[in-house]
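Training component of the fellowship. As part of building independent skills, the fellow (R.M.) carried out the full modelling exercise for a liganded target. The chosen ligand was adenosine-5-diphosphoribose. The inputs are recorded below so that the supervisory panel can assess the work.
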Amino acid sequence: MSRNKIALIGAGNIGGTMAHLCALKHLGDVVLYDVIDGLPQGKALDLQQSAPIENFDAEIVGTTKYDDIAGADVCIITAGIARKPGMSRDDLLGTNAKILTQVCDGIKKFAPKSFVIVITNPLDAMVGLVKQKTGFPKNQVVGQSGILDSSRYRTFIAQELKVSVASVSAMVMGGHGDDMVPVRSGCLVSGVPVEKFIPAQRLDEIEARVRNAGGEIVALLKTGSAFYSPASAAVRMAEAYLKDKKEILPCAAYLEGEYGVNGYYFGVPVMIGAGGVEKVIEVELSQREKQLFDVSLSHVKELVAAMERVQKA
Ligand code: APR
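Fellow's submitted model of the complex:
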């Protein structure tokens, strides 16, 4: 039996961190691809030399040639530019759309059967672009957003209550923008609704912090955006696919009627297994959450329309 092969398109902060996580979790061989000659090769060599210490056998290859991703089981895309202070995720639109169009040519040619996970922002538009440009079916192309946003929600609730993060389950739905929807009605602390523990006004503040959590990190880093937690989120999705875990995770999935949404990628819970996105799970939302969901959806629609204008120009 041969090892799985994971291609990471973009060997920057998130790409490098994902390569490390894939190796530590024994998920398979890793190919790090980037357009900057030396960067993926250098990171790959460095990581490879940690193998005897960490006791992994995976091969880590760095490359600037797409043929090296041939036959990859999973491709995770971070290629593009990251946010700087003062920029929204949407400001990245034109540049990253051009970059992803090139990336899709490479994936289509060399890894046509791969499960494709998109991280590049603005996520909800970029993942739709990847589906369109590769022509892959909807179960084969997914966006990383909800796992990260939900992890931020769980982190802040656990910190507030001074309990283990393992005791908090929570989900964030909608677009990966400032109007994402933390689903308060589904946020549980050891099975008990969070509203029993934290007053509504304080929950409003925590949820506002969740929405701005990426921006908070950008403001601190100044030269880039979050990378440890986005990397963890995407690798979790890859693992669910490679191990056929049938795990239910919030992701940006292509909707055709679910939640009343048609023809857009949007953050909802899905089941990931060997068939990729095997199922979209429909959960009931409160009246207020539904309103927030609709606001977020209208923003994603505007974003997609803006991308289409940029592409025509
Ligand atoms: N093909 C492949 N890689 C490319 C291309 C391309 N056409 N153009 C740029 N890149 C590479 C850059 O050379 C860089 O190494 O993409 C990498 C991006 O890495 P970083 O700038 O470190 O950004 P990172 O923090 O990894 O985030 C990447 O994910 O969360 C999103 O908003 C974030 O869109 C950004 C992406």
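The panel noted the following from the submitted structure. The mean pLDDT is 96. The two ends are 48 Å apart (CA to CA).
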